[in-house]
Design a protein that fits this description.
The complex is a heterodimer of chains A (about 300) and B (about 300). Chain A has about 300 residues and is α+β, with helices and mostly antiparallel strands. Chain A is built from 7 helices and 20 strands. In chain A, the strands form 3 sheets. A 9-stranded mixed sheet of chain A has the order 3-1-2-4-9-8-7-6-5, with helices on one face. Chain A has a 5-stranded mixed barrel with strand order 10-11-18-14-13, surrounded by 4 helices. In chain A, a hairpin with a 7-residue loop joins β13 and β14. Chain B contains 13 helices and 7 strands. Chain B has a 5-stranded mixed sheet with strand order 2-3-1-4-7, sandwiched between helices. A two-stranded antiparallel ribbon of chain B has the order 5-6. The longest helix of chain B has 17 residues. The radius of gyration of chain B is 19 Å and the shape is globular. The chains are: A alpha+beta (about 300), B alpha/beta (about 300).
Chain lengths: ~300, ~300
């Protein structure tokens, strides 16, 4: 086993023998919540009750295989075992451990997990959710450049304490942006290493990032401004707001396959009832971003989250 | 369990029109073109792929996505719960999934679209390639000449860039001839051939026969009403009024529903351009019953 490194993600302390570049490095741990280590991983899970394309779910176990890259087994939300495919690069495999692997592991822990980026506004956080390609990272990157701390880039683990404001935990310290976005946002100078050698997507260091959980002020669901959606911020009714939250679970299929639908129904109702949920329709280009950022900041001032301009 | 059929076509061959006809079968009023069920009705959408494989397709190369796609489509046929809202293109117990992917094999030797375990069959819509040129040029924001080259290029694809995340998974189109040959010559699933020109001449009858192939019986009265609701000029008028969510993103400012005329190429292509296209696709044109032009000059 390689040297163990310590990280924090989604409020958990992680000990890992694989370098996980997108997570927040921390000092040596006493006891870790999650251990990531190289190990044999079975191709087939004994006693699998649910089987998908190259994944299998058994009692407390989840195996997923990415051909030619990595095979992982998540156990009881505590252990993530992996085997890098022959000929594949360990560094290349890391992004799948911190993405899909931790996504599944957090679902095993029954964490409410949204597919969202988040930035800090005042003393609170706002979330941007939407499917892949909707612009979550792009908008987070723009807001970081405008002076807001990065909270999360890909998924948001949410705490719903009784009688208190919902909280979001950071998922790392890096943004992950496509080359065209680093150019469109003039962030080439912050561009770090490639997420994978074969993909023109890069780690980008935000101006500032926060390492602590923050109360959630608002959730925005991103969609492309195409008919019938006009550009701008729209306010859904409470039922649609709850639906937006449920549809933006990190992996909606896992919610159903792992029998967590009631958990997410309740969480969605609480989030829709206690904080603002909005739809943001935007054109998928970079030219419109400054106007969008201005519209969002105006929205935050109207909600009392930012001080009004004098 | 629902039965899935591919609604396959080379781009700009009437696929969306066919979907509009099907959508209008189940409506008392003309269906809004922006209320076409979006998923999982299109094979190349990222979201169903990401949902089922649990992997972000944007972190995979096109080739790695292709290795996972067959299993994803087989899972779509098996899981009936891909979309929490349950919007699906289709009718009765049949799901119609649009695709512009040619029928190709992955590096692992599997049909990209998952073979017989992923779909019960395919409705293949073909159109006179000369009528496709101007429509596709407008769609791609390219010249007619470059579009003719594109239609003859075995490496042609949609969403095949590497520096950004294209909105959909890469679709390997091959060329026009090879695209149609790939579907007609594969032996994994049965194919029902629909000619665009037949849809224009008799939309109701063509629709009824295609759905009968999929095992869905509809009355001629219902089919005729759908054909009336989804007349090409009505769709075009809707797009002019309210836009179309599936239109190409802004470049040349072209509309999705353009002319929809059979034989319109005579006014759109220079004789030499038509001759080049015919020379490159003579065998498939003959196979599909598209006669070569008489007065066209030689391909320069």
């Amino acid at each position: 086993m390689g040297r163990m490194r310590s990280y924090r993600v989604s409020g958990l302390r992680v000990a890992s023998d694989l370098v996980l570049p997108s997570l927040i490095p921390i000092g040596p741990l006493g006891a870790a919540d999650v251990v990531v280590r190289e190990s044999e991983v079975p191709e087939m899970l004994d006693g699998a009750t649910r089987v998908g394309p190259r994944w299998q779910i058994g009692e407390g176990r989840f195996v997923i295989d990415l051909p030619g890259i990595i095979r992982m087994m998540m156990i009881d939300g505590r252990e993530l075992l992996y085997r890098v495919a022959d000929g594949a690069d360990r560094r290349e495999a890391a992004i799948f451990v911190t993405g899909t692997g931790f996504g599944i592991l957090l679902h095993q822990r029954r964490t409410i997990l949204l597919h969202a980026s988040a930035v800090r506004v005042g003393d609170r956080a706002v979330l941007f959710c939407g499917p892949s390609g909707a612009g979550k990272s792009t908008i987070a990157a723009s807001l970081c450049e405008a002076g807001h701390d990065l909270v999360a880039d890909d998924f948001c683990a949410i705490d719903l304490p009784d009688m208190a404001v919902p909280m979001v935990h950071p998922d790392g310290r890096h943004l992950k942006l496509w080359e065209d976005a680093t150019e469109g946002l003039s962030l080439v100078y912050r561009k770090g290493g490639a997420v994978r050698d074969a993909i023109r997507k890069f780690y980008v260091e935000p101006r500032t990032a926060t390492g602590r959980a923050l109360p959630i002020a608002a959730i925005y669901a991103l969609r492309e401004a195409r008919p019938p959606w006009t550009p701008g911020i729209h306010v859904p009714n409470m039922v649609d707001a709850a639906l937006i939250v449920r549809r933006n679970a990190y992996r909606p299929l896992l919610v159903r396959q792992m029998r967590q639908a009631p958990l997410y129904f309740e969480a969605a109702a609480r989030l829709a009832g206690s904080i603002g949920v909005y739809s943001v329709a935007r054109k998928l280009d970079f030219a419109g971003l400054p106007a969008l950022i201005a519209a969002l900041e105006a929205h935050w001032r109207s909600l009392g989250m930012l001080e009004r301009a004098a | 369990m629902k039965r899935r059929f591919w609604l396959a076509s080379y781009p700009k061959s009437g696929n969306t029109w066919f979907r509009m006809l099907v959508a209008n079968l189940q409506s008392e009023h003309p269906v809004d073109i922006n209320r076409l069920p979006p998923m999982p009705g299109i094979a190349s959408l990222r979201e169903p792929f990401d949902t089922l494989t649990l992997i972000a397709s944007g972190l995979l190369t096109h080739e790695e996505c292709d290795l996972l796609r067959p299993a994803a489509y087989r899972a779509m046929a098996r899981f009936e719960e891909i979309d929490p809202v349950g919007l699906e293109d289709g009718i009765a117990d049949v799901v119609l999934a649009k695709t512009h992917d040619a029928w190709t094999l992955t590096a692992g030797g599997e049909p990209l679209l998952g073979g017989a375990a992923a779909a019960a069959g395919a409705i293949l819509i073909v159109r006179d390639p000369r009528d496709i040129v101007a429509s596709l040029a407008s769609h791609n924001g390219e010249s007619l000449g470059r579009t003719i080259d594109f239609m003859g290029d075995r490496r042609a694809s949609f969403c095949g860039r590497n520096d950004r995340q294209d909105p959909q998974l890469r679709q390997q189109l091959l060329g026009w001839s090879d695209f149609n040959a790939s579907w007609l010559d594969q032996r994994d699933i049965p194919v029902h051939l629909v000619r665009y020109e037949e849809m224009q001449a008799d939309a109701a009858g063509t629709l009824a026969r295609a759905l009968a192939f999929a095992g869905v019986a509809i009355s001629m009265e219902t089919a005729a009403r759908a054909a009336r609701f989804a007349r090409f000029d009505s769709l075009k008028a809707q797009e002019l009024k309210g836009g179309f969510a599936e239109a190409p993103r802004p470049h040349a400012g072209g509309n999705f529903f353009r002319s929809g005329i059979a034989g319109g190429w005579r006014d759109e292509l220079a004789p030499g351009q038509a001759a080049c296209l015919e020379a490159g696709h003579a065998a498939m044109m003959a196979r599909l019953g598209y006669e070569p032009g008489e007065k066209t000059r030689k391909c320069a």
